[in-house]
Amino acid sequence: MSWFKRDKTGIEKSNTKHVKVPEGLWTKCPGCSESLLTQEIEENLQVCPKCGHHYRIAPRKRLQSILDNGTWQEFDAELTSVDFLDFKDTKSYQERINTTVAKGGSRDAVICVEGSIKEIATQIAIFDFAFMGGSMGSVVGEKITRSIERGLEKKQPVIVISASGGARMQESILSLMQMAKTSAALAKLKAAGLPFISILTDPTTGGVTASFAMLGDLNIAEPKALIGFAGPRVIEQTIRQKLPAGFQRSEYLLDHGMVDMIVSRLEMRDTLGQVLAMLTRQ
Amino acid sequence: MAATVYMEFEKPIAELEKKIEELRSLGASEMSTEIDALQSCVETKRQEIFNNLSRWQKAQVARHINRPFTLDYIQHLFTDFNELHGDRNFGDDHAIVGGLARFDGQPVMVVGHQKGRDTKEKVFRNFGMPNPEGYRKALRLFQMAEQFNLPIITFVDTPGAYPGIGAEERGQAEAIARNLREMASLTVPIIVCITGEGGSGGALAIAVGNRVLMLEHSVYAVISPEGCAAILWSDGTKGQQAAEALKPAAQDIIELGVIDEIVHEPVGGAHRDHEATTQAMGSAIRRHLAELKEMTPEQLVEDRYQKFRAMTRMAE
Is residue A112 marked as binding? Predict the structure, then answer.
């Protein structure tokens, strides 16, 4: 049976020539499947240089890309959520707040600043999705309302950049009331003739969409962002059907008349500069 | 009303009442003292159960099939009701009803969620879950009320806004958001009555009022106990725990300044006595309406703004 006997050595795996690739050096783009240097994406505001896929971006990085000189003055940074309902699921709400705050970054899910866009002084509230899914509780609602009120007082436009799973369940009824509170403040801004621009980024759903995020004089979406009222899973379970392709994505909303335009992150500053100048008659 | 529908926790009452029924059917007069004794036993038991309802049980009472719905309140408390249909854009949503009516002879605009009792009507009313055109119809009626200087009275009872493809395509979120903003600036008195399920944004979209009244065993929360359980416990059957955590009962909510008054229900729940329930609600509405009528349009708007502006709990 010598046919079956291997008389040559097989192909051997070399142990020596392995090049160690540091973790995270390369990123495979979910948009175009290209392997790209992570650094290249980061330098491009987290947008794929090949296909324009928008990765999520940290709020302060985004502010740098929008505001003149990349500078701003922050307000109300000290406001912190409290577990007034003693809410407990698998963890208590207080524990969740503490661990999230301890991770560094923000003290809650929205950062409120004043800065200029092409020399137009503007109030901006920007969500931090990394903080409990950008959910809106008392602090988020309060900070956004104060931003709007500062806009009223200083006669400045207001921009909210949303990225949120919706209301914060751990604050139950009071998280719901933030929808009414922020929307009521927007009624005052509207009556005062000041512009409100809502920028919807991936993802913007639930109570945030069903309040200020849909109330922009201009609603501007980032490409392919998930934007909706009910989550896709909830809808699928309710209607027991598969959802159509691209459902609840920016392009779908544009098609259905819910947003004014889709703007790439790379063009956002220029677009905002142009429309703000026109809306404030400069 | 149809045969009594008992809830799970009413089992002891159901058994006693069945026994009474049996004794009655025997028709023997010597049984009457025993029947009376049992009857008083039922009343004590019922009192005991309904004085100690858990939040989860309250959610069951709030959803009871015979609980008075908007059209029941309209029938008992209003005259000259003329239902007004449609949002003038897309259609007429049957999950929200509204129209002109008289309350104590005074013309008002009344709007509310509407659920159905039998299967056919439930489907017709989409289980009380409005689509965007429902909220847009409500807004049209609110703005008409403002135009003709009529107070607005709303009845809130919905599991939530409908989560469907069409609802999303026609802008469910935008419709709710717009109502929140526009209700905030209406120059007429708005009285909101939470009568059953206050289901999140779908409830709030017609609930931005100067006064918010709430029935004793109603619930009002950012999400249903089942929905909350599915997300936070990854288990939709943990509704009971979620209900305790969400604290959606009227007694919880009044502590937070979200509602102004709890309206008492007959023992055994609103579904046991529509007349008593609607009259209790009616007298509360009457009282608050009289107060609001003293305010100027500007005061009404500012009063409403400050009411919602104050709804915050945080550390500064």
Answer: no
